[in-house]
Each structure stands twice: as structure tokens, then as C-alpha cells.
Amino acid sequence: MKWDGFRALLSVDAGQVVLRSRRGTEMAASFPEVVAGVVQLPDATALDGELVVWDAAGRLAFERLQNRLARRGAGTARAAQEWPAHFVAFDLLRLSGTDTTGWPYRRRRAALESVFAARRLSAPWALCPSATAPSWPRPASRPWAVGSPLRLPRASEPTACP
Q1: Which backbone phi and psi does 89 adopt, to 5 degrees?
Q2: Span 1-24, mean pLDDT?
Q3: Which residues of 67-102 are buried (b: 16+ CB within 10 A; e: fewer)?
Q4: Contact predicate 69/106, CB 8 Å
Q5: Given a cut of 60, is residue 159 above it in pLDDT?
Q6: Parallel/antiparallel/unpaired status of strands 85-95 and 45-53
């Protein structure tokens, strides 16, 4: 599945939120609805995912997302109301202070699903469909595509984070 959004890392520690692009650009000021949503997450948790905006028909609207980075102040709040962003979580990098990057993917995925279920996460959070689910379509040439080139570890491997 290709997500038409911005790849992002999100971390929350003692109420402090860091939301960065894969290149390290700080994006929290542009996405106040995502920052406000961290109250739903366990403290000392970090997620890897994609920021997306859906239009009224449920299609991804990259142009609306792209416009969000240029807005500040009242314009940011207005854009968040009009075109709210969602964080589609791919992976759990830290959970309640525990570094999970050394865990096999299946264990991290189970923990991520557990966080979503136990905490009943809702907007702005969305759980990416699992590439390991038996019903997940896997074209032979592209077993997994999420909008940014990446190599997913085998389910038995730990994550190699840069």
C-alpha cells in the first residue's frame, strides 16, 4: 500500500512531543491535532508512521497535507479543523520507555496492535494494515510499499534503525 503522505517519527516523553520528518524536520507546529492526540498514547512511546490527510470522499489528499507545512498560527489551527491530519502507525519503536527496536517485527506489531486496542486509539491515530496478515495482498514484485523506500525486516528480525 502506498501512503500519500509524509513519513514521520513521533515520540512522547513526559508530555513533550517530537514529530519529525524522516529527514529530521520538526513538524509538530504544523500538526497541532496530532500533538494533542498524544494524550491517548502511553508516555515514553515512539512510533514510526506516515502523516496523511483524507478528503471528504475518503481519498488521500496530499496537496492538503503539503499546504499544512507552510501555515503558522491561526492558519495552522484553521487547517487542522478543516483538513485534520492522521498519523498512520507502521511500527512501535519504544513502548513506555522500553526500546522495542531489537524485538522481532511480529512482537512489535503485536505490541502496536495491543496499544491500539487497549487504549482504544481514535483520530488522529490509524493503524496501518499488517503486511504479515494472511489476507493482505502481496504482489510478488512489491511485497510492501508505504510511500517511502524502505526494507522491512523479516518477521523474525529486529529492526535496524538508522
Answers
A1: -85, 125
A2: 92
A3: ebbeeeeeebeebbeebbbbbbbbbbbbbeeeebbe
A4: no
A5: no
A6: antiparallel
Q: What percentage of the chain's residues is helix, strand, coil (to nearest 5)?
A: 25, 25, 50
* Euclidean distance between CA atoms 8 and 29, whole angstroms: 14
Radius of gyration of the chain (CA): 16
Rounded Cα distance between 88 and 124, Å, is 8
Q: Virtual CA dihedral for 148, 102, 127, 22, nearest 10 degrees?
A: -30
Q: What are phi and psi of 42, to 5 degrees?
A: -65, 145
For residues 26-43, give the mean pLDDT: 96
Closest CA to 103 of 153, 143, 53: 153
pTM of the predicted model as reported, rounded to 2 decimal places:
0.80
Which listed residue (1, 2, 13, 78) is catalytic?
2
Instruction: Report the distance separating Cα 30 and Cα 35, nearest Å.
Output: 9
Q: Which three cell numbers stand for residue 40?
A: 491517548
pLDDT tens digits for range 76-113: 999 999 999 999 999 999 999 999 999 999 999 999 99
Check if 2 is active-site: yes
Percent of the chain with pLDDT over 70: 79
Please state the length of the chain. 162
